[in-house]
Amino acid sequence: MKEIDGRIRWRKEISGRMRLLAVVLRSVISIAFLGIQGVMAAQMGVPTPLSPAERQKAEAERTTTGPVANYPQLVDITKSTGIIFDHKSSPDAKFIAESMSGGVALIDYDGDGWPDIYFTNAQSVDMALRGVKSRSALFHNNHDGTFSDVTDKAGVGYPCWAMGAVVGDYNNDGRPDLLVTCLNGVVLYRNNGDGTFTDVTKASGLDADSGWATGAAFGEYDNDGRTDLFVSHYVDFHLDNLPKFGLGKGCKYLGLDVQCGPRGLKGLPDSLYHNNGDGTFTDVSKQAGVDDTERRYGLTSIWSHFNNDGKLDLFVTNDGEANYLYQDDNAGKFEDVALLAGVAANEDGVEQANMGIAVGDYLHSGRMSLAISHFDVEYTALYTNEGGMNFTDNSIASGIARGTQGYVGWGDAFVDFANNGWQDFFQVNGHVYPQVDTTHTATHYLEPKLLFLNQHDGKFLNISRRVGPALQIPQVSRGLAVGDLFNDGRMEAVVENLVGEPMILRPEGGPMNHWVTFQLEGVLSLNARVRVIAGDLVQLGEVTSGGSYLSQNDLRLHFGLGSHESVDQAEVLWPDGKKETLRHLAADRFYVVREGEGIVVSKLPEHTANLP
Ligand SMILES: [Ca+2]
Ligand SMILES: [Ca+2]
Ligand SMILES: [Ca+2]
To answer: What are 332-337's contacts with CB under 8 Å, separation 24+?
Structure first.
């Protein structure tokens, strides 16, 4: 074992050194490149050109038509849900604060077993200066394919100039609470269990958070049984000291005057809040080593078991700068191992835009891999988890790169729309600058959505144009949350757009594959994992808070089972280290698993009347 450890350490050192060398080399090349391409690349990372062969493949995928065998169509059902919501935006987006909002959270706030939906809303600078508020909204799932606006009763309509929302049960009473990130701090809503929430920001001490908060994530990192909270912060932005539109180096794009930032603006440090167990939190960012002394432009964060050592790790994307991967060193202190792990920058050492995060075991390796959405000249990064906190950049090899270059990606998810047991990759897009539409380039403000079919061998196929017309409707998308909205065993996608209405996508048609869904009720449930074995399919799922972009997925774990009519074995790994093994479970059911008690509820799917 010692020798193996030694070998791993040696390999890590070598690969670490090579990565460092690559980073240095690329930095030199990048600086030279920036000199030539200064105007074009002023905003984000430097494009890594795709080979002609890759570009040919991209074109072939783009021009292939006709439905995909054994795959559903994704249908826009927004209208039939009765959801009316309008995300406010400024048509010119002259300030960076006007381009970043739009998170969506799936939260079963009333505990009836049906996911409800919370959309955050933003102001424009003009609205804020005039004191005009914008209304975030909570929609109750009516169990019949429709939703009702319950915002006013719930009391969650006006938290702030809202960015995103995440879900966690901070007071461990079994009711999911809601944390909203804002242009000026965070708002914590305690779920009262009667359809209402109480704003406990001040009482919890979280009112000390006053910076531009973006991707938050609940997670219990120090094994005291209380759910803690990480909040990433973005840019130091103040309404009384607005950056001047188009003026300065960080305010140009393709020669156009655009909003300034993030480059050129001051970044903000990140925050880790330790849950004291009495309804209050203490800022422990510094002693935990996650305070981001470099003030990178933090966007999204997520806690996950990346190296399967039982201790939670934390991943944070930084816009245009190196990401953080914080590994728990066992004493509530973290070490940033992103560079060594190979996830700080792309395989050439280039730091990228780093927007949204998808986490999933797309390869059935028993390890959580990462996909990170990026800016237009870049492409989505796919970091395959090789174990031992080592990741391989498979962006190009997987086929994800060639299909995502040219788009500004935000919310992303590994999701099994076909229930075949293999997670596909879904990403929503939309440019930052409305001004791009004045140029005669292929770049537009409104962009389509992208779907990549998992080929089971580490590769993905771009099928965005082959699953119906809905994905092609161009929008300025930001947030994305996935979950089984209608409790029928199929995964929907809820997209929040920066401009105007959201879009809800539902898979229709396709194969009658089997599936299973677990709702986990542990001493704590966040970051609980389930390993599901059904014949030759061995899948791993993890309950996570945050991720995607400013959004929250369904907290239940859903697994497609293909043709398997039962699960041979489901192993539940609770956050406190306890294990539970369930055997011979019938497929096509919702199981509620309670820690120490096994299955306490087994439910058949529902049939909803009003779905198209
Ligand atoms: Ca509900
Ligand atoms: Ca609660
Ligand atoms: Ca804790």
So the answer is: 332/221, 332/222, 332/284, 332/287, 332/288, 333/287, 333/288, 333/289, 334/288, 334/289, 334/290, 335/289, 336/289, 337/389
